[in-house]
Amino acid sequence: MEKAVFEKMLSRVQKPGRYCGGEINSAVKDRRKVSVRFAFCFPDTYEIGMSHLGIKILYSIFNEREDIWCERVFAPLDDMAKEMKENGVPLFALESRDSIKDFDFIGFTLQYELSYTNVLYMLDLAGVPLRAKDRDENAPIVVAGGPCACNAEPLAGFTDIFFLGEGEKVDLEVIDLYKECKKSGWNKKEFLRKAAQIEGVYVPSIYDVEYNADGTVRAINARDGAPEKVQKRIENDMDKAYYPEKFIVPSVEIVHDRAVEEIFRGCIRGCRFCQAGYIYRPVREKSPDVINRQARSLIKSTGYDEISLSSLSTSDYRRLEELLVKMLSWCDEEKVSLSLPSLRIDNFSEELLEKVSSVRKSGLTFAPEAGTQRLRDVINKNITEEEIMRSCTTAFRGGYSSVKLYFMMGLPTETDEDIVGIADLAGRIVDLYYSLPDRKKGMAVSVTISVANFVPKPFTPFEFEPQISREEMIRRQALLKESIKSRKITFNYHENRTSFLEGVFARGDRRLADVVERAYKSGCRFDGWDEFFNLEKWLAAFEGCGIDPAFYTARTREFDELMPWDHLDYAISKDFLIRENKKAHGGKTTPNCREKCALCGANTFGEGVCFEKRQTVL
Amino acid sequence: MKNVRLFYKKTGLARFVSHLDTMRCMTRLLRRANLDVWYTEGFNPHLYITFAMPLSLGMTSEYEIADIRFNDDGATLDGVCEKLNENSPEGFHFFAASEPVKKLSELKFAKYKAEFSDGGALKEKLEKFLSSGEISIEKKTKKGEIKTIDVAPDIEKFSLEAGDETTLDITLPAGNDKTVKPELIINKFLSQADPECYYKITRTLLLDGEKMPLK
Ligand code: SF4
After folding, report:
1. Is ligand 1 within 6 A of the CB of residue A591?
2. A79: in domain
3. Residue B42, Cβ neighbours under 10 Å: how many?
């Protein structure tokens, strides 16, 4: 693309910096000297995509190899898409500004279901045929990974390869196979057939799905010698796993603009609604020395003055104190602030709390998720009101005056009492504040309740459960609103229309491909953004395809129903999920992995928490 | 402590990095370069850096100034530019580091170059427009009211050249006392002459009261 044309286009769009590339630590290579070109696409804006850790890890891993050039691609907003169309510019990669239609691979990371139309949007802007079957031998191989790959069946028709689990190794194995194929002159079909033999690779086109008359799945049959069940991949030893020494430092502001150091993968907790808590099992920790060393090199190479520790639940890192002492010893001196998201204050020593608060802290947040103890037991959220009150007391005495509480609405077995319970709990926190004589004077307490809609997800004990209707979501939101008595309580809730669509796709099957395509063609994109989401167009797309969305959301699935994702193996056994579901309905909790192994199946990897010595045996 | 003035160019696509983003970029760049820079004191110390004059989004520049401080009085300035350039994103280029001669508040004027993709067709009209003796521009005041002002008397100097494109060199007030943005004048002109015309502005110099480069 001509530079002058490009500059002209940029001068007409909002936030042009997001399309420029050229950031520090980005990979610029000689296109004649590489043999594989990989377009790493994040189906959302630059600001969101660049905040994501996975893309940074894979980008570096690819580019460490001299024969691969991995570049970044983000979804352009409407104004830029219009400029591109008018100037005849197809979707290009940030580093080289070459059209990605000529790349070897186009890879998407699927972080949320509502980005599916953007996958089509980006392929379309690139000038690549949407359906895998319409792409010829010269077209790029379209691959996808990320959490949604655990059931991206709605995208099966558009994708050549899905990567299941963690991509560090499997992606490179597939690239190596591709190089071999090119050398040996095998065609795409042969390449895909061979790729399907690699652990962690799911080639949807060689799996046939049959349906029953009632619309449920009857059978999923593997062809061409592909495995009946495709296993996810994980990194076994986190201390040896690849971690980038450098991050690209964006020249324009992004959502999470800081260095990020991953401290462990997986989660011991087993909250029954949380997909991340299951698909990333088992918990595998990095040791404090490794974390400390990696963090330090990131700070050096990026110049960031903030680093955040990343995991699903920071407080569950076993050697947190040791780690913080190590890190704080240089962070202070180098004027780096350390942020610890998802920190539970309760199991923290006062002294350490002091130290952390000398650096930046994100404020006091709790995620009780449900308003009553009964419902918290159902969802296995092991946090009691007593704990919340105790932590609030400590924090209020320490000068805090605002608390944020996260809840979910529409959880299995939820009644109006549970909804009112949310308001009551918040009210008791307000009362607690004013009952403390040693609180900070002259400050008003503020309690914020954030409520998200529960969406049942595959590979969780609630994968069988119905999702409540939009009408019911609205009714419960209204009930909660009128139950809030204090003006010190602020109530935020999540958009119900997008939750509904998320629910359809989360447990969707291949037949939804037509709906996604139709919705995209009618103008749907950036569906995760309230300002772009268009429910009417989506409903019209469902109707036009003769598909009832309620089939995917409103039904209770029997334990023996074959799920569209049952040929994908995330090392979470179906028996375990059924056991957990039954316990949920019986109001029984399950101890976390460190207290007692619940035999979920993830120990097949022979690593991590499953093999830790347990201190307490319940 | 030693005051240090950095001179740099902002070229190419870096013109699309806003002033706010440029400040962030600079801080990180200085940290990467591992220079012994001074931080403000107090509860929340931050790297001390002051810019002579924000550059509008979309403009390139040949002459930007940022002041920082080194902790060490005796610190040498040799090699500072090299270190910074090694750590710069595309489009940022440092060409001098020296002790400030004048205060940043001595900044009075800025010189700009505007290039129009007009095939040279606009030169005469532009010349007429700029010498017409009255150029009224609508400007928002701090209170949000719209005020019409005449900027013709503020044009210190201009010259025009036409080849494949018309090029305008113009000197305007810039600094604490008064700033006139060149894009306001150009947009006003183009709104009458050729609203579709694409142009690009480069700030070529920052000048003191004597119209000498600010050093
Ligand atoms: S096998 Fe046991 S310890 Fe391992 S992840 Fe599953 S429940 Fe946790």
Report:
1. no
2. yes
3. 7
Report whether residue A43 contacts ligand 1, using a CB cutoff of 6 Å. Answer: no
Q: Which residues of B touch A (CB under 8 A)?
A: 12-14, 16-18, 20-21, 24-25, 27-32, 34, 39, 45-47, 57-58, 87-91, 117, 198, 200
Tokens of B211: 């119209």
In sequence order, the 6+-apart residues with CB closer than 8 A to the CB of A482 are: none
DSSP-based three-state secondary structure for A102: helix
For ligand 1, atom 4, name the residue with the nearest CA: A610
**Are both A317 and A436 inside the same structural domain?**
yes
Interval A374-422: pLDDT, tens: 999 999 998 888 988 988 888 788 778 888 899 999 999 999 999 999 9
Nearest by CB: B21 against A7, A8, A17? A17
Query: What sign results for the dihedral spanned by CA atoms A324, A327, A332, A335?
Result: negative
The interface predicted TM-score (ipTM) is 0.92
Does the pLDDT of residue A617 top 50, yes or no? no
- Domain B2-100 is of which CATH architecture? 2-Layer Sandwich (3.30)
Would residue A148 count as lying in a domain? Answer: yes
Residue of B nearest to A304 (CA): B28
The CATH number for A584's domain is 3.80.30.20
Query: pLDDT, tens digit, for every residue of A26-64?
Result: 999 999 999 999 999 999 999 999 999 999 999 999 999
Give the model's confidence band at A177: pLDDT under 50 very low, under 70 low, under 90 confident, else very high: very high
Q: Is A23 close to B31, i.e. CB distance below 8 A?
A: no
How far is Cα A495 from Cα A507, in angstroms, rounded to an integer? Answer: 19
Structure letter (DSSP) for residue A542:
H
**Contact across the interface for B21 and A253, Cβ inside 8 Å:** yes
- C-alpha distances out from residue A234 to A71, A241, A265, Å: 24, 10, 10
- The shortest C-alpha distance from B117 to chain A (Å) reads 10
Residues in chain B with CB shorter than 8 Å from the CB of A21 are: 13, 90
Is residue A331 included in any domain, yes or no?
Answer: yes
Q: Which residue has the tokens 């598909």?
A: A547
Q: Could you give the CA distance from residue A521 to residue A541 in angstroms, rounded to a whole number?
A: 9
Instruction: Identify which of A20, A304, A335 has the shortest CB distance to residue B16.
Output: A20
- Please state the domain count of chain A: 2
Ligand 1 close to Cβ of residue A394 (< 6 A): no
**A24 and A154: one domain?**
yes
B172 pLDDT higher than 60: yes
Instruction: Break chain B down into helix, strand, coil percent, rounded to 5.
Output: 25, 35, 40
CATH topology of domain B105-208: Alpha-Beta Plaits (3.30.70)
Q: Is ligand 1 within 6 A of the CB of residue A602? A: yes
Q: Is A353 in the pocket of ligand 1 (CB under 6 A)?
A: no
CATH number at residue A83: 3.40.50.280
pLDDT of residue A351 exceeding 80:
no
| Span(s) in chain B for CATH 3.30.70.580 | 2-100
Q: What is residue A389's DSSP assignment?
A: H
Q: Which of A231, A249, A269 is the last residue of a domain?
A: A231
Contacts of A303 in chain B (CB under 8 A): 27-32, 87
Check whether residue A226 and residue A274 sit in a common domain: no
A308 and A226 in a common domain = no
**Residue A214: which H helix or E strand, with range?**
none
Residues of A with CB under 8 A from a CB of B: 4, 7-8, 10-11, 16-17, 20-24, 249, 251-253, 257, 300-305, 335
Q: What is the pLDDT of residue A365?
A: 80
A237 assigned to some structural domain: no
Task: Decide if pLDDT at A442 tops 90.
Answer: no
Read off the pLDDT of residues B129-143 as tens digits, 9 standing for 90 and up: 999 889 999 888 778
Helix (H, G, I), strand (E, B) or coil at A246: coil
Task: Assign A358 a pLDDT band (cuts: 50, 70, 90).
Answer: very low
Quickly tell me which residue has 């959880």 as its tokens.
A411
Domain hosting A209: range is 3-231
